[in-house]
């Protein structure tokens, strides 16, 4: 019988697979149900393989509001590897500011022209229309706690910003953050939707509302 060579799933594997698909359908159902906001945190799920860890709703709101105030009326905000802050900013759609997201994860291309593919390994490999010093504030969250990653991301930040920088990274990066970006640690303690092993902090180079 030709069917003998067709691999068969065990009943346990089949049940697990069906459960997975059911959960996926439920998530999609929630996304398409009335009131779903495509910009809400979690609408694109974390990918730990890309070192992604979303901020808590409260932290993302706080950082987004800080960026709006710092940018000023009609200001331009760049989110470098900080998608959950970008999503919070988009929830405020209609306010007098503009924002773009520089991100390695191409899933964020669903946000259209505001998405710019970004690889920190090539910090100045940016579109020609992304002019130097064209953003009132840059908020950045380098994906890795290493000086190499911070140093390369810093090149991008300094290229983009008119001056103001809001950096989010580990507390252990304080010395390197000061060295490469001239930023100082804030009193505000950012939180993530999942607890991280490393203590996380915010750093700025201007008088912010985070102290």
Automatic annotation (TrEMBL):
Domain of life: Eukaryota
Stored SUPFAM superfamilies: S-adenosyl-L-methionine-dependent methyltransferases
Keyword ATP-binding: no
Main location class: cytoplasm
Gene Ontology cellular component annotations, sorted alphabetically: cytoplasm
Record-linked InterPro entries: DNA_methylase_N6_adenine_CS, Efm5/EEF1AKMT1, Mlase_EEF1AKMT1/ZCCHC4, SAM-dependent_MTases_sf
Keyword Transferase assigned: yes
The reaction(s) this protein catalyses: L-lysyl-[protein] + 3 S-adenosyl-L-methionine = N(6),N(6),N(6)-trimethyl-L-lysyl-[protein] + 3 S-adenosyl-L-homocysteine + 3 H(+)
Pfam families reported for this sequence: N6-adenineMlase
GO molecular function annotation: nucleic acid binding; protein-lysine N-methyltransferase activity
Compartments it resides in: Cytoplasm
Keyword line: Cytoplasm, Methyltransferase, Transferase
Record-level GO BP terms: methylation
Transmembrane region(s): none
Protein name per Swiss-Prot or TrEMBL: N(6)-adenine-specific DNA methyltransferase 2
Protein's organism: Pygoscelis adeliae
Lineage of the organism: Eukaryota, Metazoa, Chordata, Craniata, Vertebrata
């Amino acid at each position: 019988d030709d069917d003998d060579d067709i691999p068969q799933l065990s009943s346990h594997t089949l049940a697990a697979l069906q459960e997975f698909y059911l959960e996926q359908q439920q998530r999609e159902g929630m996304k398409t149900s009335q009131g779903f906001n495509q910009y809400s945190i979690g609408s694109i799920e974390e990918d730990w393989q890309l070192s992604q860890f979303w901020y808590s709703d409260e932290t993302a709101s706080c950082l987004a509001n800080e960026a709006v105030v710092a940018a000023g009326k009609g200001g331009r905000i760049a989110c470098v590897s900080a998608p959950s802050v970008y999503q919070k900013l988009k929830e405020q759609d209609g306010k007098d500011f503009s924002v773009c997201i520089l991100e390695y994860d191409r899933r964020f291309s669903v946000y259209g022209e505001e998405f710019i593919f970004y690889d920190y390994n090539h910090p100045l490999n940016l579109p020609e229309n992304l002019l130097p010093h064209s953003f009132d504030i840059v908020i950045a969250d380098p994906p890795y706690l290493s000086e190499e990653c911070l140093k390369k991301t810093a090149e991008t930040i300094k290229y983009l910003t008119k001056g103001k920088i809001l950096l989010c990274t580990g507390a252990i990066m304080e010395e390197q953050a000061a060295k490469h970006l001239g930023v100082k640690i804030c009193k505000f303690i950012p939180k993530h939707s999942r607890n991280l092993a490393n203590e996380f902090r915010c750093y700025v180079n201007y008088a912010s509302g985070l102290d």
